[in-house]
Write a structure and sequence with these properties.
Blueprint (H helix, E strand, L loop, with lengths): L5 E7 L2 E9 L11 E2 L4 E2 L5 E2 L4 E2 L7 E6 L2 E5 L1 H6 L7 E8 L9 E9 L4 H14 L2 E8 L2 E10 L2 E7 L21 H13 L12 H14 L19 H18 L9
Parallel strand pairs: 1-9
Antiparallel strand pairs: 1-2, 2-10, 3-4, 5-6, 7-8, 9-11, 10-13, 11-12, 12-13
Helix pairs in contact: 3-5
């Protein structure tokens, strides 16, 4: 079993629930190493000081906060540990909210919470209460030397946590939401809605997979067996749409054609 990311208590009034947190989801990809093409050996990264012009060992590395260009304040890790808040071992529930009120842009990382044996009854009580109320809980916890706000919610007979970004961590994008288009035609909106409805299906996550990673794995397997590389996928050429009505009508017709010719059943998930 993987090591836990955090160990402590969920505090709910005078009730304390001992739990451990385990990573709930992580992105996956085909990993490559940097290889010296001349001899096929994996190269190593070194820490180099341009001032002393020498390679620096790990035990000579300090933490520094830049206050001006090339000017740093050194901070000892032990000094940071002393500043950790009370929530480093206790996750106190601050309030309950409707999950629909939390915009998905704030969600960061997911963790499964697993109760210790002594806290199973209190854990079950908290889960059942939240499930019947249809609410999620907001709490604070310190993880990896950073105080985080988390959302706790019922999920598949247990409680899952999502760390969330603080408002100052949400970035702006220049030009986002500043479109000046105000004169969309009703026929355009109606056709777009028809096309969207034609694509509505139940969500089954097992139907989606990383096609790029699969092609990379096929490439590696082919090279390992001394076979030719698979043919690359043809890129889809797209151009800005000039006539929205024509494009929507064509898209709707094509979607109906696919639906009629391929009535296949969706695979059910447990």
């Amino acid at each position: 079993m993987p090591s836990s990311a955090w160990k402590g208590y969920i505090s709910f009034g005078l009730i304390s629930v001992p739990i451990r947190l385990y990573a709930g989801a992580r992105s996956s990809h085909v990993a490559f190493h940097e290889i010296h093409s001349k001899c096929g050996t994996r190269v190593r990264q070194q820490l180099y000081c341009p001032y002393d012009k020498e390679v620096v060992s790990r035990d000579e590395i300090a933490m520094g906060y830049e206050i001006d260009k090339d000017k740093y304040i050194l901070v000892d890790p032990e000094e940071l540990k002393k500043l950790q808040p009370r929530s480093s071992a206790t996750m106190e529930i601050l309030q309950f909210v409707k999950l629909s009120e939390v915009d998905p842009i704030y969600f960061e990382t997911s963790y499964f919470s697993v109760p210790e044996e002594a806290g199973e009854r209190a854990y079950a009580l908290l889960f059942k209460t939240m499930e019947e109320m249809g609410y999620a809980a907001i709490a604070k916890v310190s993880m990896h030397q950073k105080e985080r706000t988390v959302i706790i919610r019922p999920y598949h007979e247990g409680l899952i946590l999502h760390t969330i970004y603080y408002p100052n961590e949400i970035r702006d994008a220049k030009g986002y939401g500043e479109t000046n288009v105000k004169n969309l035609k009703k026929q355009e909106i109606d056709l777009a809605e028809q096309f969207a409805k034609a694509l509505v299906k139940p969500f089954h996550p097992d139907q989606f997979h990383n096609e790029y990673s699969e092609r990379v794995e096929q490439l590696i397997e082919s090279k390992n067996k001394g076979k030719p590389a698979p043919r690359p996928a043809k890129p889809q050429r797209l151009a800005p749409v000039v006539d929205l009505m024509s494009a929507l009508k064509k898209s709707l017709a094509e979607s109906k054609g696919v639906t009629n010719s391929k009535p296949g059943k969706l695979k059910k998930t447990a």
